[in-house]
User: What shape does this take?
Amino acid sequence: MNSDSSFYIGTSHEKCEDYTSHQDNLILVSDGCSSAQKTDIGARIICESAKQHKAYQFKKGLLMPFCSRIIKMIGLPDECLYATLLTAYIENNQILIEAIGDGNIIIKTKDGILHILSMSYSKSAPYYMGYLIDKNNDFLWVSMENNNFIITYTKIDLEDNIFHKIRSTKDYRFNADTFVCNNSSFDFSPRKNSITLPVENVEWVALSSDGLNSFYKRDIEVDGINSYYQPVEHISVIKELMKINNTNGRFVQRRVNRFRKRCNDLNWHNEDDVSLAVLVP
Amino acid sequence: MSNSTLIQHSIQGTHFGYSAADLDYLAEEGTTEYTLATIVVDESSSVSSFKKEMEAAIKEAVKACKQSPRSDYLLLRVVAFNSSPREIHGFKPLIDCKESDYDGCLNPSGMTRLFATSLEAIDATRAYGQQLYDNDFDTNAILFVITDGIDNESGSINASSVKDKLQEAMRAEVLESILTILVGVGVGTYTDVDQYLDTFKDEAKLSQYVPLEEADEKTLAQLGDFISRSISSQSQALGTGGPSKTLTF
Assistant: This one.
């Protein structure tokens, strides 16, 4: 078993509001809201508190009151906790993945297939951890019009063929026969997403923020002077990033270092912060 | 780590090989980048008179490298050569290199297989660099070839062959940069050797030639210091995209 994580700033950001953490059988990713204050610190407080409490207290609703006490003690605004939280941990031979907010869950099963679940919101307004203890903002978020929750499930085989894709905006149920692997279970909703997978079927599980969906390729026009930016599909980014050959030690840091060099070669730029955490059972 | 935990590798298309630390072991160390340092040292019969001083220079280099802030990022390989090459030890973390390991490590005898051994050392560096690259480690390299004489055992392999191998290694783009330093020991009274080695450096397109006039204790102690400073400097350059500047002896 091993876990590792890494994060880095996006080109349009003054400070990195993504954060990752890892510990033995647990990985965590948090992405702070750019329009709220001090969310870079909030994302760290949420991650480290969840790690401290081994994530399970999160289910009992104890995590956010704990974080709230911390920020009050150090004089930070409530809105610093407007951040997502994605966690994956191993318990009783099962991998439990939980996600509040947007981002990507990437699973490689033992048969070599890559499963990508991308969670997004049509008005780019994800549900944030801070709303769990802020009833007013929770209400405002629910009342927001046309902010549909979108979950996209993509499967890529060993030959790089994308052979299954479901995009859902209303009905979040997938056919259990086609979802990741046998004996998996899931529960998707705009507020919280959960997946349970048997350890024996999984090679690794990765979590990332929505930063993987913010890549652009800089192309030079024929005149050699003007340049323009084309979005890079997040599936292409994930395929490039997740070329993991060795899962020992700081393997995510090594992979991210190599990926960033590759991005330079490809002329890819990430506007948003990028974060990645990987858990190898 | 002892030598016994180094893994033996053969190089495809050649009849020689090298040993190196297991990649999983390196990964467990938590380091994400390494500088591959190789010291290739002449142990032909002409080295007999300053064998101990040469061993002391290697020991000094290892000792000084251990004090470098980059010591955790260094993998050292030491090769001796006369009529044939002999790996004293393969690429291994500096922490596993004990100074006492180099007591009596040279056994002077035989001829000088300078070009072929240089070529093989470059090839071993490229091959292990490829393995590190494939496992996402960032890597650069520095290679010292220390000799007191003229090649008389490499057959058809010449300085141009070394140049081709060096260019091949750089074209592979698995090593961020490679610094190659040729050291001529005790060449002060042998101007023909000095000239020969200078020409070797130019023809093989090596990075630097350092002629040492004497082969005495003081000069070779300075050589140890020079080697460690050069290794540290190259290691600090890792991530910049190019090699470090060559240092003055």
